[in-house]
Amino acid sequence: MTERPVKVDAATNALIDEFAYFLGTTKKAVLREAMLEFAASRRRPGRGDERRRFAELPLDERLVLRRGELLRAFEQHGATNVRLLDEEYREHPGALALLVETDVAMGSAAAPLLSDLARRLLDAPVEVISATALSLFNPNGLRRAIAESRPL
């Protein structure tokens, strides 16, 4: 088998190094196992060998694949406690609705920014509802939304 280099940024390289050290293995083995794990998760009975692009996957599968990346991106913008809301909270059919505690300093700009960020990551419409704004302007609505949602 011919080996080929894989180029990653310095931060990703450092993470792979750390993980390889932690597992007592090589960087190649870490990447190989990650890719095999990904490939195994894509093979399901009855699916065959069909190849689909990310945007062609059902939204729930896209969310599973990008959950960690989405949470890290939200955290970089001061958003925490991300919760998945039921369909009744969605203004648009097929959209994903998220309840998120936003940074008070961002004010009303937080929800549209996070919606756009999530839309780009998931390649789907995403509606973000600020739990911070609800706590200020509709505490009963916030309690109901929390009760009818689940952590992402």
List the helices and strands and how they pair.
Elements: H1 10-23, H2 27-42, H3 59-76, E1 80-85, E2 96-101, H4 110-122, E3 126-130, H5 131-137, H6 139-147, E4 149-151
Parallel strand pairs: 2-3
Antiparallel strand pairs: 1-2, 1-4
Helix pairs in contact: 1-2, 3-4, 5-6
Number of strands: 4
- What distance lies between the first and last C-alpha atoms, to the nearest angstrom? 40 Å
Q: What do the pLDDT scores average to?
A: 88
How many DSSP helices? 6
Rough outline: elongated
Overview features:
152 residues; alpha+beta; four-stranded mixed sheet; 6 helices; 4 strands; elongated
Describe this structure in words.
With 152 residues, this protein is α+β, with helices and mostly antiparallel strands. It contains 6 helices and 4 strands. It has helices spanning 10-23, 27-42, 59-76, 110-122, 131-137, 139-147, and strands at residues 80-85, 96-101, 126-130, 149-151. Strands 3-2-1-4 form a 4-stranded mixed beta sheet. Strand 2 (96-101), helix 4 (110-122) and strand 3 form a beta-alpha-beta unit. The mean pLDDT is 88.
Offer a concise description of the structure.
The protein has 152 residues and is an alpha+beta fold.
